[in-house]
Amino acid sequence: MPPKPRFTKQDFINAALDIIRESNIESVTAQAVAKKLDTSTRPMFNYFDTLEELRNAAAKCAREMYNARAERGLAMTPAFKGFAMEYVKFAMDEPSLFRLLFMQKAENSDMKSVLDSEGHLDRVIDAVTETFNIDSGRAMWLYENLWLYAHGMATLCASEVVKFSREELAEKFGVLCRSLLMCINAPEDERTRIVPQSNIKIKGSVEDYIKQG
Q1: Is residue 193 a part of any domain in this protein?
Q2: CATH code, 34
Q3: What's the rounded Cα separation, in Å, for the pair 119 and 66?
């Protein structure tokens, strides 16, 4: 009977994840993984034909970890808010993994592609339509703006610039959603689309916006 392998496939994936946490995915090399496990490079290639295969397995594992967080958020009430909070919390708890999954250069630069690539678009849209009783088109508009805000906060956290408590996240997303719903229900206003220029003069005041909302 051949001897039982000292390391499992998951051991190598976990070692790669630890290296990513300490640096980035480019730092995952056969030598670095072997050093992390205090072994030679040979055992790794019993499970992976190439280094790229190991890196892909680590990225897949990071995605599964994120998906578990997203599902936890979507199981909360309200689901869209829980989802947004867990997105930012993942960036705080796993900054390097967040950067790996959501801060890489992408070929598709439109918002629909970005939201599709996150992986929970349909679930979030359903949550928004059910919570606010609005149609899918307006739900998509709300989610796009919610995601831009959430991603900005998450990027700050992943860059280790700032951290938020759960209470702060809940309040900020609550204020944002109230504001977006006011915009959905307010009359169309041409000032929304004004491109700032040195010679622009804007009529109206904050009070005008409040009255319209």
Answers
A1: no
A2: 1.10.357.10
A3: 10
* 3-class state of residue 126 by DSSP: helix
Residue 101 vs residues 58, 80, 111, 145: alpha-carbon distances, Å:
11, 20, 16, 20
Question: If you average pLDDT over residues 88-115, what whole number do you get?
Answer: 91
Q: What pLDDT was estimated at residue 53?
A: 97
**Residue 53, domain member (yes or no):** yes
Crossing angle, helix 121-132 and helix 79-93, to 10 degrees? 140
With both helix axes pointing from N to C terminus, report the angle between 79-93 and 136-158 in degrees, rounded to the nearest 10: 20
Indicate the number of domains in the chain: 1
Residue 206 has pLDDT above 70, yes or no: no
Percent of the chain with pLDDT over 70: 91
pLDDT of residue 213: 41
| Cβ pair 44, 74 in contact under 8 A | no
Using the CB atoms, write b or e for 57-76: b if 16+ within 10 Å: bbbebbeeebeebbeebbee
